[in-house]
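Reviewer comment 2.1 asked that we show a complete input and output for one of the modelled complexes. We chose the fe (ii) ion case, as it is the one discussed in the main text.
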Amino acid sequence: MAEQLFLAIVSCDARPMELHCAVALGSDYRRSRVPMPLADCLQPWQVPHVFSVCTVAILFGETGLGKCSVPIMSLGKHKNTTVDEWYQVDPDPDLAALGGLPSGPRLRLVLHLQTGEEATTAAPKSFVQRCTQLLEAASPLPSPRDLPVETSDVQPEEEPEEEVELELVQSSPALGTEVGGAEAAEGPTPEAAEETWGAKAYDEALTQLLAQKEALEREHTELNSFALDSSGYPVLAEMRAEQRAISSSVDELHSEVLEFTAELKQAQALSSTRLATRRRLQVSGEEVHIVGYGSKRSRSFHPKCEMSCSTNFKEEATEHRPSQEETRETRETVMCRDEPMSHASEALRQQRAQLRREAVELGKKLQACVSQADALVSENLRLRTESAELEEAFSISVPQTGFCGTYDLCEFGRDEDFCSSSCYIGASKGIEALDWDTSEAACWLGGEGLDRWKRQLVSVLRDGHALLTTLNEGVLRRVGVPKRKAKEVMQDVEDLRRGAWSQPEPPLKEVPLVTVAEMGERARPGLGWHLVLKDDSLRSYASLCRNAVPQDMAWSWFEQLRTQLPWQDLSDSRYQEEGKYMPRRTIFTVFNGCNCTYKYSGVAVKPTIEPPFVARIREYCVAASGLATQPNCCNINLYRDGRDSVGWHTDDEELFEGGYNDICILSLSLGATRTFEVKHQPGFGVARGSHKGPAETSFAVRNGDLCTMEGKFQRHYLHAVPKEPQVRQARINLTWRWITKHNQVDGCPLCGPGNSRAPLTPSIC
Ligand SMILES: O=C(O)CCC(=O)C(=O)O
Ligand SMILES: [Fe+2]
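Response of the prediction step:
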């Protein structure tokens, strides 16, 4: 449906001489005089979007005095009617900063939002009449009879002249209004306006302000030259000292983490030596058993077994077993008995269990350190931002003293951007190093065995983020670790993770997070955003807004998406029989140059460039949620009927970094009503079968509903849309996400250090 705006600037109660205006709506921009000549008022403005804002700036020559904004939404209730209104002008910050203007002037605008299938480019009669009346009074104009005005209005019957709705806002006495003729009867007295805002007085004030501005700029330049000696700015120096102190605390914490991981490594080494011994002993034990029961296999047991036992084990084994002499004397008897063996292996089992408990404890401590380091890093970031702002204000170039920005190359050989913006010596650094330098990692292996490699790995993973989240068997195999060894390492790592996983997340007051329920309520008050899951200890939230999209619009989007998208049938190589497909159809859209493939549980969904009509749906939904930035990809599912579904899963893929960062996923439901189910993660590293079990929270998702999964939801919770065979209609679901770690393997052009950090809260994502 076409929408166009007619706009006239009738007067400005600041009333200096030679006022001009600049008007912008969407990509259209025009300049004119104040008051606007009628010919300019009759040029319609195409309204690009219901959320567009028309901005009117007032200029004195080239100097901006201020501007006012008219959201198109605010004219929605006055469609096809002429509105005459005074708007407050926000003073230009440069002028306001000089403290010169007591308050902003106001603009008198005549507005007419014209809609309807037959909207023409001709100005509506009521608008033309009103403008002519006011503009003639404000300044000499060409006769309207000379201008190309179409005589028939858009809806002449529905909108007869007498019923024209005019809304007049009364001017404040302080500002007054300068109008003549017919207008004078509607506004405050012209005398009052003259007293306060005479043109002459205004011009003088402006000249004074400009002189004041120049003087301040001179002073500013002088201050800057003085400020080159940073000791002149104790605040800045203090902040630098604080920043240095925090940096060294972060360093201390890292060393602590390194100590913990080294301790763990030692424990692992001890445990694997003992395990190996036990295995050898078990083999020998079996042989004893076989010989004792008269098997034909008659390899000797003692010498071989004893030789292969470590000194360590020998000591333990002798506590439980007869001496060699005794054994020789009673060989037949002893060979029939396996109690000593089972005692020894029981002791080893207990030791192993003890070691695992210790690993869990170490994991907890590690997580506590990681959280503390997180909080310090945020504090550091805050201070850095503040000091950067101060520096910018004073234009001081003081050499950096922290660990950011001082290196040309970071320790992984990346350029300084990689560690400059926050020097987050954490997840991204360790993980990136691992992903990007696999040949380096393989070289560490270099014949020296896994222990050597593990030592290097631990030092690469530094603060433990990657160790806790992204290290998996695949990564180990990629750098050449043999399958069995990779499994062993992962078992230990998962003990560590279990310990860490049970730890609470950092409190909100330390690392703040704003939910979409709050942002949506702020952006669209009364739309109905509320929380359906609030778990502060796990920083996990879900927000819901019923009917965020009006029913008609939602159904028409549903039909458009269903019929126009190139839906794909995916086969999950891990869980699907050959030739069978996942129980839903899918498409993964990307934009802004991203080229990442979406990979999850054995499926690789190639990206499709987001079609323009999907972009419009996205913009609408993001605006309704109050999110500050646009997501850059969307997973779209088509559930053909209630037999289609998605099983328990978490969207913690590396692309979104949701396994360890606060992230946000925004979801729109269209078509049939289905149930959305949520439950806690059973624990990291636990086999998939344990995803069985009932939902803990569930709610219906209906046509036009928006909902979210936020914070660490993807780390701690699972979600699903179960089969509901009674549902006959189709449903489409769009989940918008923010890719923060673009995939190098796919050759995504956005891959690189600058894109590697995940948003910490949805408000800055
Ligand atoms: O259909 C839904 O509501 C959920 C879809 C989902 O979880 C996903 O696409 O990852
Ligand atoms: Fe999901």
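Residues 529-764 form a domain with the Jelly Rolls fold (CATH 2.60.120.590). We note this here for comparison with the apo prediction described in Section 3.2.
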